Amino acid sequence: MAQNAGPKKSNKDERSSSLEAREQAKARISKAHQAPHAIKQWADEIQNGSRKALGQAITLAESSLAKDRDRLETLLDHVQSPERSQKSWRLGITGVPGVGKSTFIESFGAAWIDQGHRVAVLAVDPSSERSKGSLLGDQTRMETLTKNPKAFIRPSPTAQTLGGVARATHESILLCEAAGFDRILVETVGVGQSETAVRQLTDAFILLMLPGAGDDLQGIKRGIMEMADLILVNKCDGPAAQQAKLAASQYAQAVHLFPPTEGGHTVHAQTISALEQTGISETCNSIEDLMLLWSSNGWFEGQRSQQSIRQFNDHVRSLLFENTQLSPHQTGAWKHLQTQVQQQQISAFAAARKWMNPLASQT
Ligand SMILES: Nc1nc2c(ncn2[C@@H]2O[C@H](COP(=O)(O)OP(=O)(O)OP(=O)(O)O)[C@@H](O)[C@H]2O)c(=O)[nH]1
Ligand SMILES: [Mg+2]
Question: Most distant CA pair in the chain: distance in Å?
Fold first, then answer.
């Protein structure tokens, strides 16, 4: 492990220097791709598997500046490849901090690579508390994968709104697929809202649990368990192995009480040790079984098209909202209605309608 040289930086310093570095990178990327023909060339480089071109495109996807959005959309138009997207599997991986998600991805990713696939790992973490420390942690936990030319690892973008992160993640998935990655793993911390967003961007959702502590569900909300397509009780090694097996059978029983899955599958609960790499090939088999079933019963396509429609609706909503808030006149009217709602002079719904009506009359 590398020794730290010089005085230790605070998290705040690290965050601001990482933001600065990102801004500088964006400026460099902008300059490098300024010429009109450059976007086409950039797209070709991505499709030919250039990791640098892919990384730069993802940086652009993480930006919310209008000029960056325009360029990214042109780039996405050029790289769009429905055949590659149809062949790829998008897998969400969640679980409480420390459950072993990154360690699991290291073993799981390697197993897919052994089978001839190319693996991209994206992380979603809109919380601002976790700083660079966890990114460094992720990179050491995914040491082998980081060095593998058939893998591409992209740590979480710096803090943004959840909506912004979800959009950027979806676009990053499309970019990775265009670059020939056909197993996309999206890691998210299972404690907040981000897993709902990731669930809506992925085909299958894997929930990692700790051995023991079955009854309080380890701070994982029931709603998150209901989103899972596969439950893995990790750290089934050493003295905890027995407990892990017991927990897995308890989860398997618990999921029977949940509503039937939309994909028509049974949610299995299995044990693994990400560290000792046991249960990994069984996990690959379980995912393959799910994909086989969903291809034959239409859920794979059906879920993707539901997700696209939802994304379209969400984007329209957020763009409408952003646009209407731009004019200073409208901001005044907005604040006035907000005050009226706050003081209970008008119902929230009536205020929303009142807000929308002048807009409708302008069109
Ligand atoms: N005994 C044992 N320890 C494990 C196993 N998997 C992970 N760990 C350890 O658990 C700790 C956390 O692992 P990570 O892979 O970083 O966990 P994570 O869920 O990615 O954590 P965050 O990214 O912080 O949410 C590390 O010290 C790992 O070595 C396992 O299968 N068995
Ligand atoms: Mg991690």
Answer: 69
